[in-house]
Design a protein that fits this description.
The chain is α+β, with helices and mostly antiparallel strands. The protein has helices at residues 54-58, 74-92, 105-119, 136-140, 146-150, 186-202, 224-231; strands at residues 44-45, 52-53, 62-68, 95-101, 129-131, 161-166, 172-178, 216-217, 235-238, 241-244. It has two domains: 14-183, Glutaredoxin; 203-244, no CATH class. The chain is elongated, with a radius of gyration of 20 Å. GO terms for molecular function: thioredoxin peroxidase activity. Belongs to the peroxiredoxin family. Prx6 subfamily.
Length: 246
């Protein structure tokens, strides 16, 4: 088992070589920043399904990485089970799931038994959970909360609960961050996957609360003439707000 995260040379920022496990020499200026449009870092780490090379795991699929601060925690237990229940829907959309918790893989495997009991009626749990007991992946993905930064040199480090939606080009397309007390909405994660994929496919935008089948928005950069040619009929509410069907 890996005692530390192994990062591939191609994707390793220069700061990584300067920061040992537990971030003893932490420098705030070197903290990585992942934004929408960033290429996700590549790394190699243990998981409940063997060692994960992250870019290889993504392959040509969409991927959702979601993090947890610790095993055997109540909110996280319900979330992992909910993602497992929805996995067939993510599979239909060419989306891989992968969790992360800031403890070791053997503890994850014990935790999975509870998740199966609580949410899956004893059924199979089929996606991997990364072991990140050193919290180096959490650091790499900017998943350390404010109190954690204060304790980088000593004391406990608590990771935040983040969701990253990553496309097949390995670009970050959406980031959600939740406090410890608030459970994630897995249906919303599925909805935004649909919205992102629809936008990519048709060159459109999706409005508030959009779900598949709803009208979409024609981007303002598309002229009325081009919109007519591309989409056929459309409804103009304002010169900058035009709806159509796809």
């Amino acid at each position: 088992m890996f005692s530390r995260l192994l990062l591939t040379k191609k994707a390793v920022p220069s700061f990584v070589n300067r920061i040992p496990t537990r971030f003893i020499s932490f420098d705030a200026a070197s903290q990585p920043r992942l934004r929408i449009g960033s290429t996700v870092p590549n790394f190699k780490a243990p998981s409940t399904q063997g060692d994960i090379q992250f870019h290889d795991y993504i392959g040509k699929s969409w991927t959702i990485l979601f993090s947890h601060p610790a095993d055997f925690t109540p909110v996280c237990t319900t979330e992992l089970g909910a993602f497992a229940k929805l996995k067939p829907e993510f599979d239909k959309r060419n989306v891989k799931l992968i969790g992360l918790s800031a403890e070791d893989v053997e503890k994850h495997k014990s935790w999975i038994k509870d998740i199966r009991d609580v949410s899956l009626n004893g059924g199979e749990f089929t996606y991997p959970i990364i072991g990140d007991s050193s919290k180096e992946v959490a650091y790499l993905f900017d998943m350390v909360d404010e109190e954690g930064f204060k304790n980088l040199k000593s004391g406990p480090i608590f990771t935040i609960r983040s969701v990253f939606i990553i496309d097949p080009a390995k670009k970050v397309r959406l980031i959600m961050t939740y406090p410890a007390s608030c459970g994630r909405n897995t249906s919303e994660v599925l909805r935004v996957v649909d919205a992102l994929q629809q936008a990519d496919k048709a060159g459109v935008a999706t409005g508030v609360n959009w779900i598949p089948g709803d009208d979409v928005i024609i981007p303002p950069s598309v002229s009325n003439e081009a919109a007519k040619e591309k989409f056929g009929d459309f409804k103009e509410v304002k010169p900058y707000l035009r709806f159509t069907k796809v």
